[in-house]
Amino acid sequence: MAMGTKGVTLRLSNSSELVTVASSLMFTNTTGTSGIDGRIGSRDSTTLDLSAQGLSAGMRLVTNDTGATSVYTIFSIASSVIRFKKSTVDVFVPNLATTSLAITGYNMEEIGEIVSIDGPSGSVNVIDITNLGSTAREKLVAIQDEGQVTMEVLTNLTTDSTAINQWKLRDLRQAGIKSFFDIRFTDQLVGTTSEPSAYFFEGFVTNYGNAVALDDAVKTAITLEISSQAHFINAVSS
Fold first, then answer.
1. Which DSSP string do the residues of 92-153 spell out, in sequence order?
2. pLDDT tens readout for residues 3-39
3. How far apart are CA 215 and CA 156, in angstroms?
């Protein structure tokens, strides 16, 4: 079914809004309602207070487990157990015996007053390996380039909650610092047991330019240069 644009958001997480934990952790349960619930908890008798580490519901979650490489969403957290959502189409065969499981949570904040979003605009170069012995052109694909995301926002120079993240984007461009972003769609409600599909990626802010025209709102054009894989997060619901 087609999705509407109303409610689509682009969010960011700067370096002060991520939490990494790597201590006595393991996947404690990988099944649940509709087969899409997962849990991470203490490996042994040591009880690690995960909420005290700064992890919270709504964060994007990534792990260093080679069998669980998707981006997940924390939907509840007790002192020592995280519950998260995963899609039934995710490749999810975690190494339950790992002794060095590390998790990172990203707290995402909405960028307010966006008028349009374009991207990710990923592509891949083609390498020609045709030689004199070839009977037809032979080709390889090169490393993927996830391209850019461009957006236009209604410029807001106040310090209210919808404007502050516009300021953060400007500061990120000036400092040349990478941040994590997600684009969240509208094919599921955002709730305690559901999450819409999304893209999650790391990137630089490479352009931040204002446009002022007669009889129009002041707008800002912003470009994000993606510097990682653009992870597609499948919608989940219970």
1. ----TT-S---EEEE--EEPPSEEEEE----EEEEEE---TT-SS--EEEEEEE--EEEEEE
2. 777 889 999 997 777 888 877 788 876 654 444 678 8
3. 17
Please provide the size of the chain in residues. Answer: 238
| 30 vs 107, more confident | 107
Positive or negative: CA dihedral 182, 98, 88, 85 = negative
d(CA 97, CA 101) in angstroms, rounded, equals 9
H or E stretch covering 41 = strand 37-42
Nearest to 182 by CA among 21, 40, 18: 18
Q: What is the pLDDT of residues 174-207, one digit of tens each?
A: 999 999 999 999 888 887 778 899 999 999 999 9
Residue 120: is the preceding peptide bond cis (ω within 30°)? yes
Question: What are the distances in angstroms from CA 187 to CA 125, 169, 179, 192?
Answer: 32, 27, 25, 15
One-letter amino acid at 222 equals I
For residue 171, what is the enclosing H or E element? helix 164-175
CA atoms within 13 A on the CB side of 69: 6
Query: Domains plus CATH for the chain?
Result: 9-13+110-233 (2.40.30), 16-108 (2.40.30)
pLDDT for residue 44? 61
